[in-house]
Each structure stands twice: as structure tokens, then as C-alpha cells.
Amino acid sequence: MSNIEMLLSIMAQLRDPETGCPWDIKQDFDSIAPYTIEEAFEVAEAIALRDYPELKEELGDLLLQVVFHSQMAQEQGLFDFNEVVQVLCDKMVRRHPHVFAGTQADDEQAVKANWEQIKQQERTRKGRDHNSTIDGVPTGLPALQRAGKVQKKAAKVGFDWRAPEPVREQVSRELAELDEALSSGHKDAIEDEFGDVLFTLVNLSRHLKIDPEQALRRATNKFERRFRTMEREQLSPLKLLDESALEAAWQEAKKAAD
Question: How far, in whole angstroms, is CA 118 from its chain's centroid?
């Protein structure tokens, strides 16, 4: 028995209505979906940390999610794991004609153009012929990632700034509008303007060729490192320090942690 066959067998046993695990038996697509998303993020975290033993384990956890969904689908007569793999194989071959069908693609841009054209053909065959340039971006993506993908699609038809400088100027304008909303005290207006600031910062990140998710993750990790250092080096609990003492402790922690 191969490893994948063993995994499929284990999953089937866990879902056995008579002898399986009560928790696994109880699950359905909706209840498992959040775990699938969580496992994908844990894979990304292991990659960011360059923790390859952890990456190996997290990839296994992510694979388990595919097997779990496939098992539930098989039980309902929808499809099974082998069909999932077959659909994937067919798609990869179909979307890489420059590798498998002798089609010419001289550079990465040509590959991307072919990929998008083939995806559009697939949508048409499925009866999902979209009407907008920015259609096709999953709503379940993290907000920063989704913003970037929507912006990239809009940029394909020329709706984009040509350089980072005007985008940076737009960030300042959006911050000024946020200040106005803060002065008004109107919660909805504040949220709208705050969202505009974030959206424009994502746009700036594209022009600077920076991944906003990675940049924010790095900033958060840096804050966490400094904060933990500050906690360790203070004799008194942080909640007992006044504002000036906290600022002094923070500045010392920054020097020590970095």
C-alpha cells in the first residue's frame, strides 16, 4: 500500500459511521473549510520562517484537508480523491501548452498571457463567461491579497498609475480624508476612509514590488520581538508603568531586540 493509499484508508476509517471518530464523523464541508484556510496560512508561516521541518508537517496537514473534503464528497457520491487528482493533472497539462503541446512561449509574460486566455476559455465552457475585467478574484481571500489581485486585473486594461510617486501622493490625500472623517466622528465615514488608505497602500506596494502581506507580517514579527524584549527587561509589570516610562522602555527594547 502506498503512503497516499494509507492516508485515504485512515480518513475513511475516521469517517466510518459505526467505528470512526465522533468528531470526524460530525464534520461537513462548511465546518472543515475554516481549518483548510488555517492550514494554508500555517504553510505560509513555515515558509516565512524558513522552518523546513515544520513546512513538511504543515504541508501534510494541508494535504489532509484535501483528503478530508474528498472523503466527504465520495460519501455523497459527488467525486473522490482520484477524480480530484485527475482534474488537477488535466488542468496543469491544459494550462501549460508551451510544455506539453509544443506552443511557443518565450518568456514569463507570454506564459501568463496564455494562462489567462486558457482560464477564460475554461470559464466560457463552464458557462461562467465573466463580464468584467476584475471578475474572478475569490471573495474569501485575505483582504490585502484580494485588493492586490483586483488592482492587478484593473491594471491590465491600463487603469493604473505609471510610477510609485503619484501613488504615494494619493496615500497622503487619503490620509487627509481620514483626518477629516476623524474630525467628524462619523464611524462609517472613518471606516470608509481607513479602508481607502489601506487600499491605496496596497496599490503602492504593487508599484514598489512589495508583498503587503509579507511586509505586514514582518512588521508584526518585529513588534512582537521588541515587545517581548520589553516585557523581559522590566522589573515591574508593564501595566504599572506610566506613558513616559513605557516609551523609554520601548526605546530600550528596540535597541536590544534589533
Answer: 24
The C-alpha angle with vertex 235 and arms to 232 and 238, in degrees rounded to 5, equals 75
DSSP 8-class letter at 239: G
- CB atoms < 10 A from the CB of 181, how many? 19
Would you put residue 161 in left (φ > 0), alpha (ψ -120 to 50) or beta?
beta
Question: How is residue 127 written as a grid cell?
Answer: 458557462
Rounded Cα distance between 111 and 97, Å, is: 9
C-alpha cell at 192: 470608509
**Cα–Cα distance for residue pair 60/56, rounded to 1 Å:** 6
pTM above 0.90, yes or no: no
pLDDT, tens digit only, all 258 positions of the chain:
899 999 999 999 999 999 999 999 999 999 999 999 999 989 988 998 899 999 999 999 999 999 999 999 999 999 999 999 999 999 999 989 888 887 887 788 877 777 777 777 777 777 665 678 888 788 888 899 999 999 999 998 899 999 999 999 999 999 999 999 999 999 999 999 999 999 999 999 999 999 998 899 899 999 999 999 989 888 778 888 889 989 998 998 888 877
